[in-house]
Specification:
The structure holds two protein chains of two kinds. By secondary structure, chain A is of the alpha/beta class. Helices cover 40% and strands 14% of the residues of chain A. In chain A, strand 17 and strand 18 form a beta hairpin. A four-stranded mixed β-sheet of chain B has the order 2-1-3-4, with helices on one face. Classes of the chains: A alpha/beta, B alpha+beta. The complex binds flavin mononucleotide and FE2/S2 (inorganic) cluster (FES) (2 copies).
């Protein structure tokens, strides 16, 4: 709509009318939607976009038939970031991967002539092309409810959102459903919080709704502290109005007139996108006083978080919004009853809110028809690490890890062997191969010792060392502990010392027991869940990969050959031709040897950087990397031989 | 870190002129310390110890007080940002895809640790938590340009391409 036409929207009828009108304007048009998410941006998708716009303008100038029927859209993340820049041509759903600026003429030309650019299509293992987005294996096994709209709308256009039915759930709630009815629908839907613990959303809303006091708040948690997960940012960047709509419905249900969106500072595009959405919603009368003539007032502010992991915790986040240091407090009284400025406050994750409009539009029954009895709906995961297809995937709850990793993720990169998948971010744990058929929902992951968390899923292969991975997370948590409570601050520091000892080859027999004891302490005595869940990574790696700890401690060996102090590089005097290339490349001059004589590495000087091995010409391959593992294997054999096995 | 451990970054003539002007502007004013530090930080990007000493002498304030203020607020820094600011992501996704190796390589080649800047102020190095492009790990960012799926062997070529 042009600026002059902007008027406050008065209700469902208005929305439907606008939606119909916008749809009819789009009738017969071909839409080229170009992903402009962070991943595709890193692949220069903005250049691609620029080139396509240029190319189309050229065609329009040449008055090429059909050229004015093409619409170009810049959208948020489509999910398949691995193969960016991604482009989808609607209505045919033709999906192009790895598009380059120089492909622009072909793309525009074939869009005009309703043809496809064969070379940009997905190729399956037999080399045949797959044209439609939903037929590509990465997408085929997903069920995208929340994420589906990302590829269809321009996140900076509220009209686009309204065109696909946006804000109709809000209109319906305000006009037809008293707050109690909305609440009972959300309760019936069995929606559980997507931000961490999977707490029942309806119950949470009810607590805040029933809490005493007139002033109440609603907050969106877009802190996304899990390093390795990026779905919340991608929803905010790709479809900000869906979160806003969910938030307004929550506010209406609970009786809150003010809201906050807490976004981390490091996400400038997400901040920009949601700020723009708020402004547009205000212009349309979807925020502010008397929303759609319902008598309900609500407005919202964006708060930029300064990026500390602990600030994602509910009480810490509220302290930060108040302008204090973002540290948690003891929660004798829940934030739902006494939160922001000691008023009843409802906090939910980005994805939780984004589910609300769908539940109101389609009903609780519909929502529950997807997923498992205990965990309804879908969940978006950030599938990253050593899988072939990395990206954001949305699946119904209850799908197995194996399906996610192999069917959607296309298996392990480089034909290596799967070792473990880490879920739940720093609060979660690792899951080994034996549990790959685990259906993924809140309860099953919890039983396996891990967590759903916000949906991080980091796949690791045989070349990853589990002790090193646990060390990484413990270091992260020790750095991020706010230091307010002793068990977490000191407990994590002690855990870190022990891990450093083990990966440095100084692990002691008692260390495993010490780790376990510290875990019990952390779990039971920490002030907040940062310390309380820190043990998950330790306990799960110990439970599923105890042998690997044993190798480090007893045999000073790192089986995955990752922990530097436990590996060594050696030159085989038989194979070495004395070319001196390694001598020159060694940064610490640890390699001795004259030309044409076999070289040798002084182990006391070697810093295990591996430069020599990379440099050694392939025809000689004279340098080998090893660890105590060989002694370990030998000894293991000897022990078994002794026992006559 | 000890003050004596801080490398000395040479200042250009222009920068020295700016510093002198700022100090002159505030010399006889009350409560001048923070504004002076702010203005110098804004103009030259950091507050070297020698400059702090000079401020102390000219404003007639104890050196330790200047140092105290300069180290309390995180806005002030005693190390300049390099002309090319390199950030290596060490979020989990990048970590398992070899981000650590990349950080090690850069450290070795440039001879600086995370948080430091080369003496010619051409490069500074930082390590980051997730930057939200995990699908394309490992990630490095140079002056806001994101590089994806960086290989250890290539990283120095990328960095040195800024050396023009
Ligand atoms: C240390 C810590 C960090 C957290 N970080 C986040 C976060 O980044 N995003 C988030 O949505 N929830 C985070 N949570 C969970 C929140 O405390 C809270 O449970 C959640 O936002 C509630 O939303 P939900 O009910 O919709 O899941 C964190 C919790 C802890 C203990
Ligand atoms: S950023 Fe383009 S697909 Fe994710
Ligand atoms: S972990 Fe590096 S971008 Fe997310």
């Amino acid at each position: 709509m042009s600026e002059k036409e902007i008027k406050k929207i008065s209700g469902l009828e208005d929305l439907v009318k606008i939606s119909e009108k916008l749809k009819s304007l789009m009738e017969g048009k071909t839409v080229i939607s170009i992903c402009s998410g962070t991943g595709c941006k890193a692949y220069s998708s903005d250049d691609v976009h620029g080139k396509i716009v240029e190319e189309l303008q050229k065609k329009i100038k040449e008055s090429k038939t059909n050229a004015d029927n093409i619409v170009i859209k810049k959208t948020g993340c489509h999910g398949y970031c691995e193969r960016g820049p991604i482009m989808v041509i609607h209505p045919g759903q033709t999906c192009y991967l790895g598009v380059k600026p120089e492909d622009a003429p072909d793309i525009v030309e074939s869009a005009i002539n309703e043809k496809v650019v064969e070379k940009l299509l997905y190729k399956d293992e037999n080399g045949s092309s797959i044209e439609k987005e939903n037929d590509i294996p990465f997408y085929k096994h997903q069920q995208r409810i929340i994420f589906d709209c990302n590829a269809k709308i321009d996140p900076y256009s509220i009209d686009d959102y309204i065109m696909i039915g946006g804000y109709q759930a809000l209109a319906k709630a305000l006009k037809e459903m008293p707050p109690d009815k909305v609440l009972s629908e959300v309760k019936k839907s069995n929606l559980r919080g997507r931000g961490g613990g999977g707490f029942a959303t309806g119950l949470k809303w009810e607590t805040t709704k029933n809490a005493a006091g007139d002033t109440k708040y609603v907050i969106v948690n877009a802190d996304e502290g899990d390093p390795g997960a990026y779905m919340d940012r991608s929803i905010l960047e790709g479809n900000p109005h869906s979160v806003l709509e969910g938030l307004i419905i929550a506010a209406y249900t609970i009786g809150a007139n003010h809201g906050y969106i807490y976004v981390r500072q490091e996400y400038p595009f997400a901040v920009k996108s949601i700020e723009n959405a708020i402004e547009n919603a205000r212009e349309y009368g979807l925020l502010g006083k008397n929303i759609m003539n319902s008598g309900f007032d609500f407005d919202v502010k964006v708060h930029r978080g300064a990026g500390a992991f602990v600030s994602g915790e509910s009480s810490a986040l509220m302290a930060a919004v108040e302008g204090n240091v973002g540290e948690p407090r003891l929660k004798y009284i829940h934030t739902a009853v006494s939160g922001l400025w000691s008023k009843p406050t409802n906090l939910n994750n980005v994805e939780t809110y984004a589910n609300i409009p769908h539940i109101i539009n389609n009903g609780a029954e519909w929502f529950r028809s997807t997923g498992t009895p205990g965990s309804s709906g879908t969940k978006i995961f950030s599938l990253v690490g050593k899988v072939n297809n990395t990206g954001l995937v949305e699946v119904p709850m209850g799908v197995t890890l194996r399906d996610i990793i192999y069917k959607i993720g296309g298996g392990i990169k480089g034909g290596k062997k799967f070792k473990a998948v880490q879920t739940g971010g720093p609060s979660g744990g690792v899951i080994p191969e034996a549990l790959l058929d685990l259906p993924v929902d809140f309860d099953e992951l919890y039983k396996a010792g891990s967590m759903m968390g916000s949906g991080g899923m980091i796949v690791m292969d045989e070349s990853d060392c589990m002790v090193n991975v646990a060390h990484y997370f413990i270091k992260f948590l020790a750095d991020e502990s706010c230091g307010k409570c002793v068990p977490c601050r000191e407990g994590l520091r002690q855990l870190l010392y022990i891990y450093e000892r083990i990966i440095n080859g100084q692990g002691q027999v008692e260390d495993l027991k010490l780790l376990e004891d510290l875990c019990i302490l952390l779990e039971n005595a920490s002030l907040c869940a940062l310390g309380g869940t820190a043990q998950n990574i330790v306990v799960t790696t110990l439970k599923y990969f105890r042998q690997e700890y044993g190798a480090h401690i007893y045999y000073k060996a790192c089986p995955a050959m990752v922990c530097k102090p436990l590996i060594r590089y050696e030159i085989s005097s038989d194979k070495c031709s004395g070319c001196t290339r390694c001598v020159k490349v060694c940064p610490v001059d640890a390699i001795s040897g004259k030309p044409k004589e076999a070289h040798a590495i002084d182990q006391s000087l070697c810093i295990k950087c591996g430069a020599c091995m990379e440099e050694c010409p392939e025809k000689y391959s004279a340098i080998a990397k090893s660890t105590g593992i060989f002694e370990y294997e030998k000894e293991k054999e000897a022990v078994f031989a002794d026992k006559g096995q | 870190m000890q003050i004596s451990d801080l490398p000395k970054y040479p200042l250009s003539q222009d920068e020295i002129t700016v510093i002198n002007e700022v100090i002159k502007k505030y010399r006889d004013k009350k409560g001048a310390l923070i504004p002076v530090l702010q203005e110098i930080q804004k103009n030259i990007g950091f507050l070297p110890v020698e400059v702090q000493k000079k401020i102390a002498a000219e404003l007639n304030i104890a050196e330790k007080e200047v140092y105290g203020v300069a180290t309390f607020y995180s806005f002030f820094s005693m190390i300049p940002r390099g002309k090319n600011d390199i950030r290596v992501c060490l979020g989990t996704a990048c970590f398992v895809k070899g981000g650590k190796k990349i950080a090690d390589k850069i450290q070795k080649e440039l001879g600086i640790k995370p948080g430091q800047t080369t003496l010619d102020r051409k490069y500074s190095l930082q390590v980051n938590r997730c930057v939200g492009a995990c699908g394309l790990a490992p990630i490095i960012i140079i002056n806001d340009k994101i590089y994806q799926k960086v290989k250890t062997e290539e990283v120095m070529d990328i960095i040195y391409s800024y050396n023009k």
